[in-house]
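Dear support,

I submitted the protein below through the web form. The confirmation email said the job was done, but the results page showed an empty box. After a refresh the structure appeared. I'm attaching both so you can tell me whether what I see now is the final result or a partial one.
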Amino acid sequence: MKTRTRYLTILLLKDSIRSYDDALKDPLTLQRYDLKQDVPFRGALYVRDPHRNRPDWVDFVLEGIVSEDLPLETRSQSSVLFIESCERRLFAITFGYGRYLLKPNAHETDFGLKTALNAVNPVQLRSVDLRTFQEAPIHTRRQASRSSALDVFGVDTNRDVLRSVTGIPSDAETAARLTGSDSLTVAVRTDFNALAELCSKMYDLYLDDSYKDHFGWIDHLRIVRDQDLIETLDEKLVRVFQSYELDHIHLCPPGNIDWERTQGFIFSTSKHMSSIPDLDIEAYLGTVKNPSTLSRNKLKDHRVIAHTDDEEQLSRWSVYDCTTFETEHEGFL
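What the results page shows now:
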């Protein structure tokens, strides 16, 4: 029997994560399933009970139809499969909304993008997601009608930060297609017993630096990773929130979203405010009882939820991750 192609989304957990529970937000609310004894690697599956709800549009259409009994409801499923590779690193393969079962800071943020760039054929790219830094940062997704080189996508290597890339691997044995961002999505023929081997192969690609041959420009404009500098900049950010000085700060989704399905946004800090059609920093601050008490931890704990018209959660981010703040520090902007 021919092995079918699977589309798997893989996250590399941080080296500091030593157990499955360390990576999960609420492990006690999930059902754990152990692997069969003959599976050649260690791991476990965690599943959240499916949530059922009545779509909001049902009540709307009932205003104009005869039947009052529409047996329609949505059902969302979330699960995450943990895998231990031979390198003693933990991987998470997510299904459905399984990514939201994980703590936001549990995974390596550059795993998917770096792995994909090391694997893809540089002249067989299909899509790139960019963040352009200018007065108002812009998220763009550019897709080619056929596999193409990077110059076809019109990338400005002086202003654009590459957030995601989709392409065809140079080695056909690696996968049929790869998409890399924080996570890595692979289209690959595999069976369950080969998953640890697959993760190990992707990890080897992640450790490589051959991406510099064709994509070295991504290092010209990089995300700040120096912890001392991050703390200094975060202190400035918190003071802006506390003082309500909003001239150079705003909220926006931290990546591309499906605007056709996104009806609006809600804040986890809001008890009574209804959904808003677009993110607004003043709307967020209006849900905070005393902005002067805000801290970096609170900004990371407070959540922004993007949802559909039937209240299905599409994305969930921290307010911290949704914040765009422009400031000058030691002569740099």
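Response: this is the final, complete result; the empty box was a page-load delay. The radius of gyration is 22 Å.
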